[in-house]
Design brief:
The chain is an alpha+beta fold and about 130 residues long. The chain has 3 helices and 3 strands, in the order βββααα.
């Protein structure tokens, strides 16, 4: 049994969610501690609760995806940086160009990372619609 308080149109409703084996088995919407909300009020409250629930599910998924991608991108950038920063491999004459390429690579990776996040955001939003 999980109690929540939800504000709908200036009224504070208490929502009690009953769960069984990790699944919702019932929802009670109370106007006050001993008065049930009307059907219309309860529907408005449950719709708002569903929006909150979707938002928090979305944030949880997004956080795990971003962390995973951050780690992958960081590893790749680090590997590329190690290769590019090795003066012996390319020689000193090419080092200024290598430094520019290294910087461009890092900017590209960061921009690609942003695009990955935006794409994942859109996919998660479409998943719920």
């Amino acid at each position: 049994m999980l109690p929540y308080k939800i504000d709908v149109e200036g009224y504070l409703f208490q929502v009690v969610i009953f769960t069984k084996l990790g699944k919702i088995s019932g929802i009670t919407v109370l106007r006050s501690e001993d008065e049930l909300a009307s059907k219309e009020e309860a529907l408005a409250v449950v719709q708002k609760l569903q929006k909150y629930n979707f938002y928090f599910e979305y944030l949880t998924k997004r956080t795990s995806i971003v962390k995973e991608r951050d780690s992958t991108v960081a590893e790749r950038i680090e590997q590329a940086q190690l290769i590019l920063n090795n003066n012996i491999l390319f020689g000193e004459k090419l080092q200024p160009e290598i430094d520019q390429l290294s910087l461009a690579l890092e900017v590209y990776k960061q921009q690609q990372h942003k695009m990955d996040i935006y794409q994942e955001d859109i996919a998660l939003l479409n998943e719920k619609n």
